[in-house]
Amino acid sequence: MDDITPGELLTRQHRKIDAGIQGLIDGSGGRAKLAESLALLRLHLYVEEELLFQPLAKSGLTMPVFVMKREHGEMWPLLENLDAGCGSAAPLETLHGPAKELFQLLQIHNPKEEQIVYAAVDKLSREKTGGPLVEALESATVPDDWTCEMAPH
User: N or C: which end of the chain has fewer CB within 10 A?
Assistant: First the structure.
């Protein structure tokens, strides 16, 4: 294992997620790459909400954590819609609108998360040794019935 911080690992995930969604939008990718990105996004949201946000809120980042959760909830219906579209025979063109909308939300969300949340995660990680957290992030799996906390019902 290299000396990657939790923030670096999560930022790399952002880039992979963005690339898969952008690939559908610009035609350089397709349904399979989009499906991979959506699966990674689901995992990404899960590890943030289930492994990171509670200790961060306890450390004093209550408002940034709330904002991140709210934005996850805004993304969730798009993720679900696109995921269903990847599993169907629907024309790719029907996925372009939701993909663009999700991509735009991510372009607003990710920089805030990287600058505020991931910086704090890395600080906490240094205080409590980062290796175990990185290992937990890398080995996490999303339960089949999991949804983000602020997803519309």
Answer: C
